[in-house]
Specification:
639 residues; alpha+beta; Molybdenum Cofactor Biosythetic Enzyme, Chain A; Molybdopterin biosynthesis moea protein, domain 2; 8-stranded mixed sheet; 25% helix; elongated; disordered N terminus; transferase; magnesium; molybdenum cofactor biosynthesis; metal ion binding; MoeA-like
Length: 639
């Protein structure tokens, strides 16, 4: 390979970096290592990390008080108090204690009226099923993706990983960077300098800059101006490290040997850049590894590090650094707040129709996953009662605006495949992301109509025609909307392993404990349809009003004995190792506006949706039919 010396050509810094990174592309590889989660702060995940355990691990009390069966309190009122007796129809319980059958609600200690008997209380109001109970998996569900691949691990992530049962995580390995100070005139700090001597300090600055940039620095002893010794030191450093920094000797003086040594050992790609101060930078490759010669003047050395060392470290760390900050966004739904507090509300962010949208996440103090999912904080100041939907709010960003602007905002029905899509997006299309919020099919369509989402996942059955989704889009939208076909997925009853209650069909549910999906969810609409088809009414189903927001949350409640059955998808049952009674296939599709097809991140989303990698992941999950995926149907809506 021809050796080049481009010194004095004054190459612009950006062009020099591009030339150098191109020369290193074939030889610099990203490598990985497995480390304890407790040591993973600021490290970057290799691939998606999935929870091993639920959090909470069991249905737990959210308040101190007594656990009861909600139905025995139905008639409680100020006129007709209901008496509770410890050990007979209730039990004392503290926050965090398990809530086990037959109990399904907690009454706060403050709502108990004491009697002369310390084991007897009266209550003056009824208790709703599952009030003050944190259901299993409320925060984290086993099998749920905690972190995607390529994610920088933060303190909140470490807490959630441990809560989800993850003790080790595979991360990108930090590059080992050798730092070689040179020059016969330099001495170590602590010695009294004489005339002609300079206290060496640049290498200590480089050490800390490397550490700050997530590398592992190794500062070597100073090398005097001796060609042979410098050659020997550089060669040894190259063979023992990923990258080498040689400080001083990079200019054109009679004892500036660095460029000559690097020409002999490898290839000098650039010598001299159009930067002032900092012109005499050397960008070389020796045995396939980057060796960078930096000027001896401290300011020049610092500027050279910022301009040239960091972009090369980015190659090893597989990162694209973008600064975060604050931004103004439109709130997607109303937030009520207390006048007493300054409240920090976690939000997901996306840019839809040239406006930033902030979608609030779970607000509970125990919802640690909302910190992991959040793109920022919306701050509601003290003495404010809340913020109305559509208002502009300021958000403190956790991610850069560049990332947010290239994020597909998905709001609607939940499915495990959304986690798969979110993980594959940046892998197959670098710097493109997907963010999902689960509010049910109808909630997603409303968000799409208000211009708060790019994509709404839907599976809404028209009970008159038996056709999915189309009639709802025709009725709800007054302009053309696109239905992108997704998957046919199996819906059915999720039951305990071995099906101990011998459930065979919908007709077997009366008398059993059921967990439902939230209002507006396609699964709930399907369940209501099946109840009607089987001559049943909601009042016959214990737990009909007990709502879970995702299929995995339903599976977790069944797994933990919080319910005997719940309706959901086959992949959720498989993920929790539960039995599944198929009821039928349904169509899980994606609604979006045709104009969104112009966006590069929407094109990336559609490409991932039809990719081989995505199909393979769905085969692993089970319960999906991908024939017809990606087909587009234009629906004109009401005129």
């Amino acid at each position: 390979m021809e050796k080049r010396n481009l010194y004095l050509n004054n190459i612009p810094a950006e062009e020099a970096v591009e030339i150098y990174r191109k020369a290193l592309k074939e030889s610099v590889d990203v490598s990985y290592e497995r480390i304890p989660v407790t040591e993973a702060l600021n490290r970057v995940t290799r691939s998606a990390v999935y929870a091993k355990y639920c959090s909470p691990l069991y249905n737990s009390a959210a308040m101190d008080g007594v656990a009861v069966r909600a139905d025995i309190t139905n008639h409680a009122s100020e006129r007709e108090a209901v008496e509770l007796v410890i050990g007979e129809n209730c039990r004392l319980i503290d926050t965090g204690d398990p809530v086990r059958p037959p109990y399904n609600a907690v009454i706060m200690a403050e709502d108990l009226v004491e009697t002369t008997d310390p084991d007897r209380f009266r209550i003056l109001a009824s208790a709703a099923p599952w009030q003050h109970v944190r259901p299993i998996g409320e925060d984290i569900v086993a099998g749920e993706m905690i972190l995607p691949g390529g994610h920088r691990i933060r303190p909140v992530d470490i807490g959630v990983l441990l809560a989800g049962g993850i003790l080790q995580v595979e991360v990108i390995r930090r590059p080992q960077v050798a730092v070689i100070p040179t020059g016969s005139e330099i001495i170590e700090p602590g010695r009294e300098p004489r005339e002609g001597e300079i206290i060496e300090s640049n290498s200590r600055m480089f050490e800390n800059l490397v550490t700050e940039q997530e590398g592992l620095p190794h500062r070597l002893p100073p090398v005097p101006d001796d060609y042979g010794l410098l050659r020997q030191t550089v060669l040894k450093a190259v063979r023992e490290h990923d990258m080498v920094l040689v400080n001083a000797g990079s200019s054109a003086g009679t004892e500036d040997y660095t460029v000559h040594v690097l020409r002999e050992l490898g290839q000098v790609i650039v010598h001299g850049v159009a930067v002032k101060p900092g012109k005499p930078v050397i960008l070389a490759v020796v045995e396939g590894k980057p060796v960078i010669g930096l000027p001896g003047y401290p300011v020049s050395a610092f500027i050279g590090f910022q301009n040239f060392v960091i972009p090369v470290m980015d190659l090893y760390l597989d990162r694209d650094r973008q600064p975060a900050g604050c931004a103004e966004a439109v709130l997607s739904r109303r937030l009520i707040s207390s006048l007493k507090y300054k409240e920090y509300v976690r939000v997901k962010m996306g840019k839809v129709d040239e406006k930033l949208i902030a979608a609030p996440l779970a607000r509970g103090a125990g919802a640690a996953m909302s910190l992991v999912r959040a793109d920022g904080f919306c701050i509601i100041g003290q003495n404010r009662e809340g913020v109305e939907a559509g208002e502009t709010v300021e958000v403190e960003l956790f991610r850069s605006l560049s990332e947010i602007e290239h994020t597909v905002m998905v709001i609607g029905s939940h499915d495990l495949l959304l986690d798969v899509l979110a993980d594959l997006m940046p892998s197959l299309h670098p710097h493109m992301f997907l963010s999902s919020t689960h509010v049910g099919s109808m909630g997603g369509l409303m968000a799409l109509r208000r211009g708060e989402a790019h994509v709404a996942p839907v599976h809404l059955l028209d009970q008159k025609t038996g056709i999915y989704n189309i009639s709802y889009l025709e009725e709800l939208f007054h302009e053309p909307v696109l239905l992108v076909k997704g998957v046919k997925r199996i819906q059915g009853l999720i039951v305990k392993k071995g099906n101990p209650r011998n459930i065979k069909e919908i007709r077997d549910l009366p008398g059993l404990r059921y967990v439902n999906r939230q209002r507006g969810a396609g699964t709930r609409i399907l369940f209501d349809y099946l109840l009607s088809e089987n001559g049943l009414v909601p009042e016959e189903i214990e737990g009909y009003t007990y709502e879970a927001s995702t299929h995995m949350a339903v599976a977790a409640l069944v797994s933990s004995d919080g319910a005997d059955a719940g309706m959901g998808i086959q992949s959720a049952a498989k993920a929790m190792d539960l039995d599944f009674l198929p009821i039928g296939a349904e169509e899980y599709d994606f609604a979006l506006y045709p104009k969104s097809l112009e966006l590069p991140h929407i094109q990336a989303f559609l490409d991932v949706l039809q990719s081989r990698e995505f199909r393979m992941k769905l085969e692993e999950l089970g319960g999906y039919d991908t024939s017809g995926i990606g087909e587009q149907i234009l629906i004109h809506g009401l005129c």
